[in-house]
Every structure is written in C-alpha cells, then in structure tokens.
C-alpha cells in the first residue's frame, strides 16, 4: 500500500508533462490532496502506525505538490494567469517547506496532548485528513461533469491509487495492527469508492463523448468531399487567392 500510494501520482505527472496540459484534471483536487498530507502525516506519526504508512503520506504530499505545480503552469498556459516554469517550481518548493515545518510542530503538539490524556488534537487531524482527501474529489467530479467525459486523468494513476487504498485498508486490520483505526479506514475506503465511481463514469461517458466527436467530424468531411466533387464538376466557380 505504501509503495502504490507513494508513487501513484507519477503516471499523472508524466501524462500531464507529455500532453503539456492539465485540462480535465482539477487543480483543486491536487491542492486538497497536497494539503491533506499535512494532517494525514501528523495523524499517522502520532498514532505510531507501521513505518510504511508513516512514509506514504509524505511521499504522497511531495508528488501531489508536483502535480499541483503542473496545474499552475499548464492550466492557463495560454492565458495571463499561468505560472512560468520557474514560478511553478518555486511554488512547489515553498509549499513543501511550509507543510514540513507545520507538520513537525503539530506532531510535537499532538504528542504533548496525548501525554496529558487529550486526544482531541489528534482526532481533529484525523478527521481533517478524511475531509480533505474525500472532499478533494468533489472538484474532480465537477471537471468530469463540465467535460462530459473523464479527460486529463491518467487511468494508470487511478488504478494504482485505488489498489493502494485497498491494501492500505487491509493493513489497518486487526491482523496487522494492535487496534482497528476507524478514521484511517474511512479515508482509504472512501477514496476507493470515489475512484470506482470515476471508472464507472469513464465507462459510461467516454464512449458517448467519442461518438459525439465522430458525429461532428463526419459531416465536415462529407461537406468537404461534396465541395471538391462539385468544383471538379464545374458547378462552383474557381476560388482566386490574392
């Protein structure tokens, strides 16, 4: 689970880099997931989860920040709001430094609370991570609705993310952990269900979008062919180009 969830964003980063576009990929999704690494990393460290589940949110945050920086650079690449390459890189670096510093402070604060039998801060970070991870998918569903298809997303990324959520849920079971953690299970399980929904929508909407594209292209081709036939038959006057 840690391996899959540590590197699952890489296919999306490669996909966006090759396409030179992040159209269809929600900037808000990547931002929410980047920020979610802060409370999730804090929660996993304080709860003393197994080492892979402690490493995973930090790798997740760094790579999600890369995908977010790509959105800043590519989403408005032809508009006045786009970030230059170096602006995007420095935004990524600054964001990671800020999140790392905040998490360090929050970990010490939550551990101090636990020493005084105050679990509220730890619970808050657990709930916040669930809200950000699952809530971040809402803007992505809006992008799907706007495009009437699942575009801009790497299906390899989605598959790895889904499988990572499944095995991470299994790792939290009583077979591997001293106690069952409800919040982490809700976060991982909710993510799995949300991404299954994206696959279902892709299976329904993408074939329809492909048919619409073919229907739009076919009349154009037909009209061009008819124009050529009529001109060759002498039914249209020759076009002079000045």
Query: How many E strands?
Result: 0
Order of helices and strands: HHHHHHHHH
Task: Give the proportion of residues in helices.
Answer: over 70%
Query: Which spans have pLDDT < 50 for at least 5 consecutive residues?
Result: 221-242
Mean pLDDT: 81
Number of DSSP helices? 9
User: What's the gyration radius in Å?
Assistant: 24 Å
| First-to-last CA distance | 65 Å
Assembly category: single chain
Q: Quickly give the structural class.
A: mainly alpha
The tally of domains stands at 1
How is the biggest beta sheet arranged? none
The shape, in one word, is: globular
How big a fraction of the residues is strand?
under 5%
Structural features:
242 residues, mainly alpha, 9 helices, 77% helix, globular
